[in-house]
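Ops channel
N.P.: pipeline sanity check, posting one input/output pair.
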């Protein structure tokens, strides 16, 4: 089973959608705790509408998002601290419930892509979500990148 990941940092909505289409993603799973963005096209409602226009479904799994203190650590470049905070969060009921939902979806055979903000998956908690998934499923991970990033 393959799981893709993508971050929208530096991407345009068009390049982001193209990367998903090229990878034949069927379902984009938003793993942001807060599905808002000041970047046009990446807030929950507009993102879901853009995805629908190209035949990709959208699901927000808030429980797999980084808690506020983890987001603050990431924003300050303290990635190890963010990882620690997120790993602790993964023991919460909300995180475990959403992880179980995600496992079930992937087992169903759909091409899934996990989305968050950071371009570099090593700096993003979505890599930790993949790590948690790998404890339940044998998965191949593919990190997608939008081709024409804004400079």
């Amino acid at each position: 089973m393959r799981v893709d990941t993508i971050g929208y940092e530096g991407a345009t909505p068009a390049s982001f959608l193209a990367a998903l289409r090229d990878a034949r993603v069927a379902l984009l799973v938003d793993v942001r705790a807060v599905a808002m963005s000041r970047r046009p096209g990446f807030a929950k409602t507009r993102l879901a509408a853009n995805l629908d226009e190209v035949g990709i479904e959208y699901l927000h799994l808030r429980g797999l998002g980084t808690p506020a203190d983890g987001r603050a650590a990431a924003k300050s470049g303290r990635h190890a601290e963010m990882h620690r905070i997120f790993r602790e969060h993964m023991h919460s009921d909300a995180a475990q419930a959403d992880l179980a939902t995600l496992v079930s979806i992937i087992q169903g055979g759909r091409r899934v892509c996990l989305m968050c903000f950071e371009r570099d998956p090593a700096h993003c908690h979505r890599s930790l979500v993949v790590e948690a998934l790998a404890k339940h499923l044998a998965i191949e991970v593919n990190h997608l990148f939008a081709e024409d990033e804004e400079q």
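N.P.: looks fine end to end. The mean pLDDT is 94.
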